[in-house]
From TrEMBL:
Protein known as: Tuftelin interacting protein 11
Basic and acidic residues: bias regions: 28-41
Organism, scientific name: Crocodylus porosus (Saltwater crocodile)
Record-linked PANTHER family: TUFTELIN-INTERACTING PROTEIN 11, TUFTELIN-INTERACTING PROTEIN 11-RELATED
Pfam families tied to this protein: G-patch, GCFC
Transmembrane domains' residue ranges: none
G-patch domain boundaries: 74-120
GO biological process: spliceosomal complex disassembly
């Protein structure tokens, strides 16, 4: 497509143009006679005949004998330096001897004009060394051509028109670029625009018309011709406009056809991908239809065999195999199907017939394997993590609730709580099979009310069967669910102990199984309220007679050492035993006694206590007080003369007993250190403190507080510790802080705040 550019704006630079400039051939060159010959410069060939390896220049034919002849008047240092650097006389300077040999000759200008005003100023030597490339005629033509560009054509010759060509590929590329640009909004395409950039005001009705305003022939009146202007020989603006319009229409058709072709190609690709996807979906659907057909055949076969008059009725094992096949081979269809309705229609009648003669208490394991197998077949995997009750979506839970649960509910209503063994064995056998919420329902709604009612009817004074024999077997299953029963049991036991005497050992047999069941606080409170006062009364009635001692009352009290706490037992001994025992010792020592008998009496009473009781600081203090009394007695003159050697014996006894105490304390400290080391090793596995002292030590380490015992300092037999700058001691899990006058109990957080 050719476009005449006489009345058209040049094509933008983004489009490639191929211009045919042929006007240079038609331009008339300026005549050579118009300018003097000397004005025309000639191009020199600076590298034509010149080669780096030349021995000399064309003009260098002179003798070099007189080169550097002026050095005869000097010391000749220049010539020597050049020769050291490799200079050869008669050759040019430089690595390749490319320097000139003869000195530059000067040429005198004729007048005072500018350079080149009088012709060429080159010397004969310059012309020989650097000859010109072209002839003088060619140089003059080139000069005239360059000069003519700055001159106005005197003849007014008309240049040939320039044409710009566009290929189809360029038009397609233009169409693709234009398609990517966003089209103007509809509102902007109907805006009235007033153009005042020209000589006259023009009105356009869209912004798009502004870009085409130069394509419309100008209707303005032609300007009058000037003096020098010539009338146009061929001026047809209407024809040019029509031609331009045809060109634009053709361009648009090419662009539209290219776009339509690209659209059709894209549509073919999209349809190809769509056919592939639909083919895959069709294959999947055909496979699903085939699997569903097979599943439907199996289900219909099960329904046919479930009919009453069927010659080959369906058994529970065969039904399990069918469901196993459905789960293994057709898992997706089995998972998506309604298993609940299918199981209700097929499995439930068979399962009801299987359990119709079942007695859970006689055969507790009957059916566990069958139910475990059906659990894997029917249980909904999505509900395993929820552990909730959803009978509408889980066939197994519905099976257990509607088929299995009525038999269990019926047997529990007839069950006697004191015969707990068969019921506990039955639930232990089924606990891993039945759902969690079903087990909770059995324990909370069926078992616990029966136990609660039986505890209310229990009388510890008349019943021969101890209560722990039919309550404790439920601990592994019910655990914290039995907590509401403990309070009425303690109340009934407390009422039964009102008239109890320590000589009756049956109370210990009844209470001992409950020590680990009750919480430590409730057990200690029960002992302090109901047992410790009775034991204190028994010790108060004890008569200490060295000559004829009855030990029954003391044995009754000591038998409870494992039941009551060490602190309670020590309190009883301090209050009811040691005052009388020390008083008897003092009376005996004041009547000229036999110290060997006193020593045996002392050691005999000490052997009656356990090591745990003897290790208590208060008990140590009482026995040390007895030793001090004995030492004071033998230190007097009367005792010393009455029995020689008694002082040494008592001193030896004192030394031996106290050395045993020190050894026992050292062993205890070593054992505590080993325990601390083991706890330090296992700290990563378990960071739970073993006792209250360990808890305080852990908190002290966390807050960077020094916690250590005060050596040799005690208060009421309790070890004193420094916690930072505070002195404390620990008694029964309570921290006591030393105040101004008394010891004040405080919380652990308050202790940390005070230490900081």
């Amino acid at each position: 497509i050719a476009k005449h550019d006489t009345h058209r704006i040049p094509v933008p630079a983004a489009e490639e143009e191929v211009e045919d400039d042929s006007d240079e051939d038609d331009e008339k060159p300026i005549k050579q006679e118009e300018l003097p010959k000397e004005v025309v410069p000639k191009k020199l060939k600076t590298g034509g005949n010149f080669k780096p390896s030349q021995k000399g220049f064309a003009g260098g034919n002179k003798s070099f004998m007189d080169f550097g002849s002026w050095e005869r008047h000097t010391k000749g240092i220049g010539q020597k330096l050049l020769q050291k650097m490799g200079y050869v006389p008669g050759r040019g300077l430089g690595k390749n001897a490319q320097g000139i040999i003869s000195p530059i000759e000067a040429k005198q200008r004729k007048g005072k004009g500018a350079v080149g005003a009088y012709g060429s100023e080159r010397t004969s030597q310059s012309l020989q060394d650097f000859p010109v490339v072209d002839s003088e005629e060619e140089a003059e033509e080139a000069f005239q051509k360059d000069l003519s560009q700055w001159r106005k054509d005197p003849n007014g010759g008309k240049k040939k028109p320039k044409y710009s060509y566009k290929t189809v590929e360029e038009l397609k590329a233009k169409g693709r670029i234009g398609k990517q640009l966003s089209a103007p909004p509809k509102e902007l395409s109907q805006v009235k625009v007033i153009d005042m950039t020209g000589r006259e005001q023009k009105v356009y009705y869209s912004y798009s018309q502004i870009g085409h305003k130069h394509n419309i022939p100008d209707d303005s009146p032609q300007q009058p011709l000037g003096k020098d202007s010539k009338p146009q020989g061929f001026a047809l603006p209407e024809l040019e406009h029509n031609l331009q319009l045809l060109i634009d229409i053709t361009e648009q058709e090419i662009i539209q056809n290219d776009r339509q072709l690209q659209y059709e190609r894209d549509m073919v690709i999209n349809l190809t991908h769509e056919i592939q996807k639909i083919s895959e979906v069709l294959t999947h659907e055909e496979t699903a239809i085939g699997n569903l057909s097979k599943v439907l055949e199996m289900v219909e076969e099960c329904e046919r065999r479930m009919m009453p008059n069927c010659s080959n009725p369906l058994t529970l094992d065969e039904c399990a195999k069918i469901f196993g096949t459905l789960q293994d081979k057709y898992y997706e269809e089995y998972r998506m199907s309604d298993r609940v309705d299918l199981a209700v229609a097929i499995v439930f009648p068979l399962m009801k017939d299987y359990f119709k003669n079942w007695d859970p208490l006689k055969d507790c394991t009957y059916g566990t394997d069958v139910i475990a197998k059906w659990k894997t077949l029917l249980e909904n995997d999505q509900l395993l993590s929820l552990s909730g009750q959803d009978l509408t979506t889980d066939a197994f839970h519905r099976l257990m609730w509607e088929i299995w649960m009525p038999y269990v509910r019926n047997i529990i209503t007839q069950w006697q709580p004191r015969n707990c063994g068969p019921m506990v064995d039955f639930l232990d056998s089924w606990v891993h099979v039945i759902p969690v919420w079903v087990l909770d329902n059995i324990l909370d709604q069926l078992i616990f009310p029966k136990l609660q009612k039986e505890v209310e009817n229990w009388n510890p004074l008349t019943d021969t069967v101890p209560i722990h024999s039919w309550i404790h077997p439920w601990l592994p299953l019910m655990q914290a669910r039995l907590e509401p029963l403990y309070s009425p049991i303690r109340n009934k036991l407390a009422n039964a102990l009102q008239k109890w005497h320590p000589s009756d050992s049956s109370a210990k047999l009844i209470l001992q199984p409950w020590k680990d069941v009750f919480t430590p606080g409730s057990w200690e409170a029960f002992m302090v309220k109901n047992i410790v006062p009775k034991l204190g009364m028994c010790l108060h009635e004890l008569v200490i007679n060295p000559h004829q001692q009855h030990m029954d009352a003391f044995y009754w009290v000591v038998d409870w050492a494992g039941m009551i706490s060490v602190s309670s037992l020590v309190g009883l001994l301090e209050k009811h035993f040691f005052p009388k025992w020390l008083q008897v010792l003092c009376s005996w020592l004041s009547n000229s006694p036999n110290y060997e008998e006193i020593t045996k009496w002392y050691l005999g009473w000490k052997s009656m206590f356990s090591d745990q009781v003897l290790a208590h600081p208060s008990i140590k203090e009482k026995f040390n007080e007895a030793l001090d009394i004995m030492n004071r007695a033998v230190s007097s003159s009367v005792g010393g003369y009455m029995q020689p050697g008694a002082r040494e014996n008592i001193a030896y006894l004192t030394h031996t007993e106290r050395r045993k105490d020190f050894q026992y304390e050292a062993m205890q400290e070593r054992r505590e250190a080993e325990n601390m080391a083991q706890r330090g090793i296992g700290m990563a596995a378990s960071s739970v403190p073993m006792n209250f002292k360990d808890l305080i030590q852990t908190k002290a380490e966390e807050h960077n507080i020094v916690f250590m015992p005060v050596i040799g300092k005690r208060h009421e037999g309790k070890q004193l510790y420094t916690f930072g700058r505070i002195v404390i001691y620990i008694d029964r899990g309570v921290v006591f802080v030393q105040g101004e006058k008394t010891w004040v109990p405080t919380s652990l957080q308050s202790l940390i705040d005070m230490a900081k």
